[in-house]
């Protein structure tokens, strides 16, 4: 200052400038808390997804295959409610798939009025039920819908709660993927405990092996049943081949694809599993958890993995049709 002959009087720049606080931007006020020392850790985000027959990935990264016929709540907290309706896929089977999704963005102070979105098979709108495509005032909306593919794929971005929702239609059925901050996702009353994304499916509604494995109930004795044709149009070998084209990594999404093809015969379930994995890669905050592999609770002899997959899938298909 002396070299430049600057006066020591008058305004100077602060070394601790005020952080602009936007009440309708979750990332903004989460950052304010961090900078002020109220919270030294950045917000943690959770992911939940539902697709196929249906397969559920919970906020805790538990993977389950469920029946859940009828209307069921995925999320029901103080900020967001999501309900899905599932219908039988094949006559005489307990396998179901989603044909209706209702999402309620609850009113939030000055950020947005309550907005309701509803999608059903062959009607995936790019607007809320009131005809609007956004919520909030100003040029930068706190809630908006973006149509990525007409009638097939929409995204909802809720800035004020840091939440993103993907809804797709593949074939005759719908899929859903959600990313939400943990502190908001876990903000609910005791009476709101029935949330599939939080606590998973009730045990009575599960059709997997209790560990999320749709292809592994290993070591169990099975009826002497032919594996040649699980459903018209697909054998285990052809289902494996078709799913492997889209998903080279043989994780739980690959297994779900095979399971769905064998139980329904509907090739669109291959696209559903592949899109579900793409949504994980787009929304799940932790890359090391994108792929879920079946836990090896039972040792499988070398060269026996294909046989184990065959036995496991046969057992699951029998469970579905019982």
From TrEMBL:
Q: A GO term (biological process) for this protein?
A: BMP signaling pathway
Q: Which GO terms describe its molecular function?
A: coreceptor activity
Highest rank taxon of the organism:
Eukaryota
The protein's matches in Pfam families, at most eight in alphabetical order, are given as:
RGM_C
Keywords per UniProt: Autocatalytic cleavage, Cell membrane, Disulfide bond, Glycoprotein, GPI-anchor, Lipoprotein, Membrane, Receptor, Signal
Any keyword Membrane?
yes
| Region Disordered, residue ranges | 1-25
What's the protein called, per UniProt? Repulsive guidance molecule BMP co-receptor b
- Domain Repulsive guidance molecule C-terminal, first and last residues per copy: 44-285
Q: Which portions of the chain have biased composition (kind: Polar residues)?
A: 1-18
What species is given as this protein's source?
Answer: Myotis myotis
Protein family according to the UniProt entry: Belongs to the repulsive guidance molecule (RGM) family.
Q: What Gene Ontology terms describe where this protein resides (cellular component)?
A: plasma membrane; side of membrane
Which sequence ranges form a coiled-coil region, renumbered to this chain?
none
Report TM segments: none
Q: How does it sit in the membrane?
A: Lipid-anchor; GPI-anchor
Q: Give the location in the cell.
A: Cell membrane
Q: Which InterPro entries match?
A: RGM, RGM_C
